[in-house]
Amino acid sequence: MGTNGQGSETTGSQTAGRWDFWIDRGGTFTDVVGRDPEGALHPLKLLSENPGVYEDAAIEGIRRLLGGQIEPARIGTVKMGTTVATNALLERKGDRVLLLTTRGFRDALRIAYQARPDIFAKEIILPEQLYERVVEVDERLRADGAVERELNLGPLQKDLEQAKADGINAVAIALMHSWKNPAHEAALAELVRGMGFGQVSVSHEVSPLIKLVGRGDTTVVDAYLSPILRRYVARVADALGATPAGQAGPTLQFMMSSGGMTAAEAFQGKDAILSGPAGGVVGMVQTARLAGHEKVIGFDMGGTSTDVAHCAGEYERALDTEVAGVRMRAPMMRIHTVAAGGGSILHAEPGRFRVGPDSAGADPGPACYRRGGPLTVTDANVMLGKLNPDLFPAIFGPDQDQRLDREVVAEKFAEIATREGKSPEEVAEGFLKIAVENMANAIKKISVQRGYDVTRYLLNSFGGAGGQHACLVADALGMESVLIHPLSGLLSAYGIGLATVSASRQQALLKPLAPASTDAIDTLIEDLRAQVSADLAEQGVPAEATEWLPVLMLRYAGTDTALPVPFADRDLQRARTDFEAAHKAQFGFIYDDKEITVEAVDLQAHDARPTGTDEPAHPTTDTSPDAAEETRIFAGGRWHEAGVFRREALSPGASVTGPALIIEANQTIVIEPGWRAQITARDHVLMHRFQAAERAQVVGAGKADPILLEVFNNLFMNIAEQMGVALQNTAHSVNIKERLDFSCAVFDAEGALVANAPHMPVHLGSMDRSVETVIRLNPEIRPGDVYALNAPYNGGTHLPDITVVSPVFDDAEESVLFWVASRGHHADVGGTAPGSMTPLATTVDEEGVLIDNLKLVEAGRLREDELRRVLSDHPYPCRNPDQNVADLKAQVAANERGAAELRKMVAEFGLDVVQAYMGHVQDNAAEEVRRLLGRLEDCSYEYQTDTGQVIRVQITVDRNAREATVDFTGTSEALANNFNAPEPVTRAAVLYVFRVMVEAPIPMNAGCLRPIRIIVPRGSMLAPEYPRAVVAGNVETSQHVTNALFGALGAIANSQGTMNNLTFGNDTYQYYETICSGSPAGVMNDGRGFDGTSGVHVHMTNSRLTDPEVLELRFPVLLEEFGLRPGSGGQGKWKAGDGTTRTIRFLQRMDCAILSSHRHRAPQGVAGGGAGEKGRTLVRRLDGTQEELKGCDQTVLEAGEAVTVITPTAGGFGAS
User: Fold this and answer.
1) What gap in Å lies between CA 432 and CA 672, rounded to an integer?
2) Whose CA is closest to 567, among 558, 577, 556, 557?
3) pTM of the model
4) Going by C-beta distance under 8 Å and a sequence separation of 6 or more, which residues neighbour residue 725?
5) Rounded to whole angstroms, how far apart are CA atoms 553 and 600?
């Protein structure tokens, strides 16, 4: 920190004789808390943008609090959090950036992990890249840091000079494996800096952690945002007369995303993304501690979004975060944002209500703002009397002298009410219920899904809209205590005041947690300590005031999820014990025999001197004051008389029983019926539920209510998502954990799909066949029984996809109420080739072990001996049965999570209601599909495949009945190849296509298929019979069926029509990946055409690719190239996205197999659009010769040989 004008050192505590300022510059409002020389706090709220009135809100706030003029001599420390960087990132308004990266990786950050963000989007929209151009650098390191190709700087000079001449002033440098050996990056950085570029961000300096994509993105963000920040910081510093540490004058510090302060001159782009919200987390944790609570949920509700955070005693930071489509590998507070705020727009669609995600913003704002805005959450509170226009300042209307407009709000709600046969108040309360559930679900994601029970936590509510909803959100989560701080409307600014200067450095290590690594761990900690000490010394923090915390990022070898474990006492055994406890808590298991890896060391340090912001306790007198006036609020379906209390009139000890309103300067606090508020000794409002919450009363569940329909939709989906998180966390295989090749779902008592977490489209419409099979074959199911199957002719798809099905019984354990199921792609289920994806199989036995209706668990006990017998008693048994058993246990655990959540739901709403709404959500989906069918024409398509087989489809639409028949009669017979697709795969493709065609966010369930009759001829390639091989049916034929259906509908051109399944392995290693191409061009239902997107997965798959650096660390391979092929997509009025080329060189002898399509025939365009290109798979031998593999082929590659996959490309749309 700096020194003030008298030369005395400032700490976080009160600056003698001077004002300190704590500022949160948000997107809509800037909050300023000034602390005067006597220690009194002065809050102030300003609009962040007010052109013509002031230039900068932060400077204006300081000027006003100082009486109209900025005098540097009166200012001690100014601490700021700012959204300048976040807004520049969201709006893509950063500086122009040149990216320098290793040759072969120019598109690595653009393709990233190849998944698309919305699996049901016709037009795939990816976040815009932050860099403007890329230059490839001649150099290459291996995973161990050894030099594969020396750095050649010569050719770069010309490109760099050109970029400089074109006005690019920021450069990001990210080379492969530079986290391990930074020599090439350092030499390159020296050249670039020497040429006079203003901003040079280098990945081993910015984020020296493994993963090229995350480290590269972080480096680009740093280059993109740092210049903007520097300009902003300079503007503020100049206005204040701020000086660097150690000099006379005001000290200026900024809040970092990690929750610590840093000197203005050290503030970087990568540390600024969550600058403001991080202050809120500090404020939330510190004020909760003052109130005597260590376990707390932060609930920060603003105008456009709500931030939620979890704390169980320690701040939670993440090293991997995605913000605005950018993957960050830098320490950040763990904050989850949901698009639900006061300005969220209310959508009254026929039969179903929705809230958000769109917002009315500040202009026009909610309907009540008198600017012609739409109905929003704020308006719902006006309608219910919870926001009373008479208690609000008169700042609305053209002359800013009118109150909130309740009349227009009542009018708009009355219109909806008339249509729905409800009262306007019921409609408004219904919308509020949906908004509250959305926010509660966001909190579940950061707590319940991670194994924390929040019912005993404190909900710390802040932000302008928090007080209106805090009791309702707490009720939705079963929480019974809510805290509202006197500065809750400005808690981020207050938290910034409570934060201290901190610094941290991270460095990848990748050594085992073992005594042999002690020296390496200690050396790295000391190296980092030297760097952090220098950082803190520059900011005036003396060594004796520094508190240190080394943290080890630990994970099991071969897994991807590292957990932070404090290492202050340098005790390896304790670190192991703490890691195992954390792993057990989050993932539900530990390995007995697996090595623990120290992925990285994170050394954190902060100024431990007090900030001088202790809140004094006042004497309390128990009182129950009378209300200043009475009003009416609508809650729980009826009107209540409610007292109105002015916050300033309530003294410590005062108690207010709901229903009531407490009016503060910056917000209204709603005390719901059943809640009581107490003013504590520290002047906090602490609310407790004193009456047990009534069970949700649902009248007439026989008829779907549009409000409850949305609530239950979200609840069912949340259960499926929680199951998915549990499976991803507890699974052992990379396919499930990292490639996310799994799905979880909830079914009704008959086995009809109710909700499916959207992971893999090919699973979506096929899992219910597995559940129906279990129901049909097991008339005597008992509690605690669980079944497993992968039988392609009996409800399964292909053998690696094993489905685990569990019944959910009633309390009397007599009848099955629901079913839950999880399906995971197992790394190996036997067969003639490692990975069980053999391209040459002609019978199913060659593909692996077939599991047909196996009772996996009996009366709660895993039948492990029987399971292992099934996995091993086979001509081609499972290669790693331990992993299969572990993954199946994880699937059983995921089902248990789903069953427990369903039981909770029954306890809350009643069985009849839950079962009724399981039906209603399916009816709603069916109605949405019927609406689509009413617009379609009869159509047909013929799809030629590489095997010579043809898929024929005829879609016949009955517009009056709003039904359709999808008939595959005429499709080729099943042959002795493995492109035969079991009937559930075809069904999944039909479901996926019609869900995409709806173009609206409808739930994915059995109702989608109710208006559609599917005819698949038995014995055809779409309904094969035992013992036909089927492995390509799931991955290849599913894409063909999808293309045929979209082709018939004339909606989208052919996609690449393959997943390019590449497997390689030997006795030690097995690996499987699918490779993306570009997406096809097409047309929306309203006639608007669109281009395809380059380098992204489409249709029936969305599996992730392993990061290039992690791939090379785990497997003896070298990725030579993975990039786009410009101009390769099909041409037309609308062009397809570009395909990719991927070359992998092997460093050991390996078996390699490719299972693919469109090697003979290019994917076709639609409506006159041009065809794409055929794919090719090439092998480069040691003698330099090149072989082309067939579409389905396998070969052996020696060390030094390489395989190249050139993907087929999609078709164009419309004649050009």
Assistant:
1) 13
2) 577
3) 0.88
4) 449, 450
5) 5
